[in-house]
Description:
Layout: H1 2-12, H2 20-56, H3 78-89, H4 92-96, H5 103-136, H6 145-167, H7 178-203, H8 215-242, H9 272-275, H10 277-303, H11 309-334, H12 339-362
Helix pairs in contact: 2-5, 2-7, 2-12, 5-6, 6-7, 7-8, 7-12, 8-10, 8-12, 10-11, 11-12
Amino acid sequence: MAARKEWVKALSSVTYPASRDAEASAAPASRAIAFWLLICCGMVFAMAVIGAITRLTESGLSMVEWKPLIGMLPPLSAEEWNRVFGLYQATPEYRYVNAGMSLEEFKHIFFWEWFHRFWGQLIGFAFLLPFLWFWATKRIPKGMMPKLLGLFLLGGLQGGIGWFMVVSGLVDRPSVSHYRLALHLGMAFIIFAVMLWIALGLLDPKPASSSSSKAPALRRHIGMALGLVAVTVAWGAFVAGLDAGMIYNTWPLMGGRLVPEDMWFLDPAALNFVENHAAVQFTHRWLAIVTGVVVLALWWRTVRSDLSPRGHLIGHATGAMMVLQIVLGIATLISVVAIPLAAAHQAGALILIALLIWLRHEVKAVR
């Protein structure tokens, strides 16, 4: 009897960091936030594809006004259509590229730019309203608030960058700056990657593969792969912004040569890699090949590592996506930038980054 009393006393003196009720409510809240962020990731993915179609249909300069919220509605009367068409007729793109375009033709390109902006503002509401609800009901886990606020600010900044890009094509030139295009696309990829990383951390704080003996080496390799994918994407934006995919539509040679003849006509020489159409395409081609080699080497390492079954599956998917992305890039080039192939190529870049982020999460260091 005395021993039993001592045992009960010892149990009653134990202190817990949180009640069982608090622990039980924390997990569902974290999962809800994770699913919300994954939905936002899906919307950003769709936004990138819509943006690609907007650019490929040469629709990006059709809206010359910046009217957040008010601009969510398209023109609803003939008078308003004539007004916005008149504004477009004053732009360099109309004067130098689309002179004589009819109102009906204008409506087609206007739709894609309007839809692109509409979807961007829809993402803002899809993020802000649930965020405010999670905050008001105290469901945001400790330490998560700065991350979510940072994501919201990045989203607002992205809208500003988009307008900053459009303005570059409304003054003297009939196209947007390819540097600003790369900045706009890069920010979209950053927002997508950060949201995905946070969501994965909430869904699975301690992934099984994190205990792998190869995890530290794989983390370094994945970091290298992500860096190369990011640089390749940036040069892909340069190719798109300069319409450099419209020349040398053969593979693997460019004009019958490995290195095109007109690759070095700018001075200083380094300027060719960011301004010369032939050199920009050449750089994107070979960055893609180097990236492919690094990612396929990563796939091989994951196959030979003691990862969990899920870790191996993600590794296989990453390797397969890398091969498909290279094939899509070559097909886009050979087709002289067919819109479905080019849009799929941009989507493929996002999928590849998502898989690399997921694989990096699987082997992350757990504290």
